[in-house]
Amino acid sequence: VSVALESVHFKFDSAKLTNKAQTILKRNAAKLRENQKIKVILEGNTCSIGTGEYNLKLGKRRARSVKLYMVKQLGVERDSMFVVVSHGESTPVSSNETEEGRKQNRRVDFVLQK
Questions:
Q1: Spatial separation of the C-alpha atoms in residues 65 and 14, rounded to whole Å
Q2: Interior CA angle at 27 toward 91 and 65, to 5°?
Q3: Can you give the pLDDT at residue 1?
Q4: Measured between alpha carbons, how far is 69 from 28 in angstroms, rounded to an integer?
Q5: Which of left, alpha, beta for 75 (phi over 0: left; psi -120 to 50: alpha)?
Q6: CA distance 93 to 75
Q7: Mean pLDDT per 10-residue run, the chain (114 residues)?
């Protein structure tokens, strides 16, 4: 079964879900309801502003906030479906040299495992 889940983005120095992020997570939850056996790794990421240690912690907070929201959407019995990890600033998808690039790097990605 192929499932494509969208990443969610965050404001600078925040792990709070935006309204747009919540909308995306609701769509992701709807897709996951039909796929009971999938494990989901939630990978928290940041831009390069701040120390590496701080960004690792921020990435983890972002991934945890996504997990809590997804568990709320799917039910507490699905808690074990999600694994939280943080890459901090180490896996950018865009350049940290521009504000637009940094915005793209402030995200949580969904990686599926069967």
A1: 10
A2: 50
A3: 53
A4: 11
A5: left
A6: 31
A7: 86 98 95 87 97 98 97 89 97 97 97 88
pLDDT value, residue 73? 92
| Alpha carbon separation from 65 to 35, 96, 99, 101 (Å, rounded) | 21, 23, 23, 22
Instruction: Give the C-alpha separation, 103 to 83, whole Å.
Output: 24
Among 112, 86, 109, 89, smallest CA distance to 9 is for 109
Q: What is the 3-state secondary structure (H, E, C) of the chain?
A: CCCCCCCEECCCCCCCCCHHHHHHHHHHHHHHHCCCCCEEEEEEECCCCCCHHHHHHHHHHHHHHHHHHHHHHHCHHHHHHEEEEEEECCCCCCCCCCHHHHHHHCEEEEEEEC
Distance CA 11, CA 2 (A): 30
**Per-residue confidence (pLDDT) for residue 78, from 0 to 100:** 86
